Amino acid sequence: MKMIDSCTRPLGVAALCAALAACSGLNARNVAHNTPAQTASKSVPAGGEFADLARWPQVGQFIERMAQHDGFEPLELQRLFGQVQRLDAVIQLIKPAPPSRPKDWRAYRARFVEPVRINAGVRFWNQYSDKLAQAEAQYGVPAEIIVAILGVETIYGRHTGNFRVLDAIATLAFDYPDTPNRVARMAYFQGELENTLLFARQADIDPFSLLGSYAGAVGWPQFMPGSILRYAVDFDGDGRIDLRNSPADAIGSIANFLVRHGWQAGAPIVFPASVATDGSRDWESFIGQGLKASYSPEQLRAGGVTPGIEPLPEMRYGLVDLQNGDQPTEYWLGADNFFVITQYNRSYFYAMSVVDLSRAIRAIRNH
After folding, report:
1. Least packed by Cβ within 10 Å: which of 95, 175, 289, 326?
2. Which residues pair with 212 in a beta bridge?
3. Confidence band (pLDDT; 50, 70, 90) for 34?
4. Cα–Cα distance between 243 and 218 in angstroms, integer?
5. What is the rounded CA–CA span in Å between residue 183 and residue 178?
6. How far is 4 from 192, CA to CA, in rounded Å?
């Protein structure tokens, strides 16, 4: 997000990125994830809500920094911000969901591991099999993982968002809703606003031409502007990076993002597990320990965690708890590659839905 670094909170938002979640200071292991595919149909209100942002003191300070650090003309930026629209719809969509809302992995999974995405994923894989094979050979990321991420994010480019990215990000950069981490989140979005303008200048495009999610994520893979600058690649060889119109660039960029965040070629992703039911609760110490693999199989077994499949003894794992409301929680052991997927969106639910969708697509395609 992504990207998107694309992330969500009970995240009322569809594509909040990993950096945003990190600066929130929250452990977002099972947050509800509203993807661009669910929210892209919510277009910008007709005419937007025009506000002369160029007159806001904090915008003036931002313009000064951009002029000093990035070589933009102040008058040019003032004219640009005079056309930016503050969008109340973005503010409402970004607000966290009520804390009492139960987490339901089965309901979440059903939204993403379903026939439309599975069948579209098979067709996408067949159509771009050469590029997916190239990405797998070059980066070591399995084709089905790349295909599944595109399916979860935008259903293969069907829903990439209708908000002007400049409007959405500027709204959040200077008028983020009143939350405990408002200052940190505004700082994050101000950084993404700078990245938006830098990317538009680098790509020689009108920044107002960029459309995306209400968090500002762009294109087939829903990369935030900063992630475009850091991780996007020209994978179709046409001399430019275009995540909005080039599925090949999206494929290569997702693979590059995952590798840059630590993907290990050929390594496992996740194993089924169960926890002790004899009254011992030692295994609870493994819950909520961050988005990383930290424990050996011996440590997990000693704490009451039983792998459903024998994991590799030399690797480290994290206990993944997928809560099901009033039904029993589902447990898995996530290896390093599982937590790499959470860097795309900081949610256990998100990462596991990618894994399950990838398996479903591969099974149908190989049938």
Report:
1. 326
2. 163, 218
3. very low
4. 7
5. 9
6. 11
Tokens 């294109």 belong to which residue?
219
Instruction: Answer yes or no: pTM beyond 0.90.
Output: no
More confident residue, 42 or 80: 80
CB 146 within 8 A of CB 255: yes
List 144, 153, 192, 194, catalytic entry: 153
Query: Active-site residue 153, yes or no?
Result: yes
Angle between helices 115-127 and 348-366 (to 10 degrees): 60
Give the span between the Cα atoms of 63 and 197, in whole angstroms.
11
Cα–Cα distance for residue pair 318/300, rounded to 1 Å: 9
Give the integer Cα–Cα distance in Å for 110 and 97.
20
What pLDDT sits at residue 1? 53
d(CA 330, CA 30) in angstroms, rounded, equals: 12
Pairing mode, strands 211-212 and 85-86: unpaired
pLDDT higher than 50, residue 360: yes
SS (H, E, C) the chain: CCCCCCCCCCCCCCCCCHHHHHHHCCCCCCCCCCCHHHHCCCCCCCCCEECCHHHCHHHHHHHHHHHHHHCCCHHHHHHHHCCCEECHHHHHHHCCCCCCCCCEHHHHHHHHCCHHHHHHHHHHHHHCHHHHHHHHHHHCCCHHHHHHHHHHHHCCCCCCCCEEHHHHHHHHHHCCCCCCCHHHHHHHHHHHHHHHHHHHHHHCCCHHHCEECCCCCECCCCECHHHHHHHCCCCCCCCCCCCCCCHHHHHHHHHHHHHHCCCCCCCCCEEEEEECCCCCCHHHHHCCCCCCCCECHHHHHHCCEEECCCCCCCCCEEEEEEEECCEEEEEEEECHHHHHHCCCCCCHHHHHHHHHHHHHHHHHHHC
Question: How many angstroms separate the CA atoms of 51 and 56, rounded?
Answer: 9
- 246's CB contacts (< 8 A; 6+ apart) are 235, 236, 238
